[in-house]
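Q: I'm writing up a methods section and want to include an example of the input and output format. Could you take the sequence below and give the corresponding predicted structure tokens, formatted cleanly so I can copy it straight into the document?
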Amino acid sequence: MKKLISMLTIIMLLLAVMTGCSNGDSDSQVKEDEQVKTDEQVETNEDAKNESDGEKIKIGIIQPVEHPSLNQIREYIIIGLEEQGLKDKVEIIYKNAQGDSSNINTIVSQFIGDKMDIIVPIGTGAAQSIAAATKDIPIVFAASSFPVEAGLVKDVNKPEANVTGLSDAIDVNEIFSLAANLTPEVKTYGFIYNSGEVNSVAAIEKAKEYCDANGLEFVEVTITSSGDLVQAAQSLVGKVDAIFTPTDNTVASAMPVLAAEAYNADIPVYVGADSMVIDGGFATVGIDYTVLGRQVAAMVKKVVDGESISSIPVETLKEYTKIVNTTTAKEIGIELSEEDLKDFQVIE
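A: Here is the clean output for your methods example:
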């Protein structure tokens, strides 16, 4: 009997030991499974990170004010990017400052905080703001007529830092030569511009040089807002034979106002952009903003492809157009023949 009890005890002990070993193996397997699961989760997270790294390239566009010419630039930058094959590779984030410089600063801060990959400011003021705020994000400016004078680059052929772009500078001499052909009787010009716009100041200096070299008189009036335009135009009536205003954003935003005053006084207004002719100006050797937008998009594509800013010189427009508004011509009593119009893009 005692032997039987001893044998049963030994068997029970052996069973307990085997069960313990089995539980230990099970615990070990659980821990191993958990480790595998954790490793899989890490791998999944790493894959997600890689996917995040492959997100669309973020391109921020800053527009200073709502205006047809600036809208057209923006629209054709986007169209141009699609034509460059980037439609599915980029995300466009567009912000409009609505004519308020403080809004530009807010947009600049947002774009930097959101870590844009490329920023495209339209116009000199927006370009200056973003260039002053970041030295890391590539900047491709659109429509800064005089980027050296504006402090955006020191050398248009070898941009330094993180800034390049497209100059929309028009040869002011070409506009005045056009004016000499269309209205040779003009002896005195009135200049209207915003003295706070660097591009306008530079263009007006060239206009003054042309007048001085060709025996023409001029009277200049500066404005600080579009609300000043009526008074500025009226102050020139009776003193000048024609008005010249460059590609000035402040004037352009209220061009119909200037055109109306010029109609009343039978004064031709020569301008710096096609949109300003469309809005009632008389004529220009101007910019086709569809060409400008596409050309900027091609420059952005170079940055997307990995080219450094220093290897992308500042470009100038490849195409210019002579533009005349025949409705305006009739309003101010200027007769234009078919011969006069043969080389023009005609706005009616």
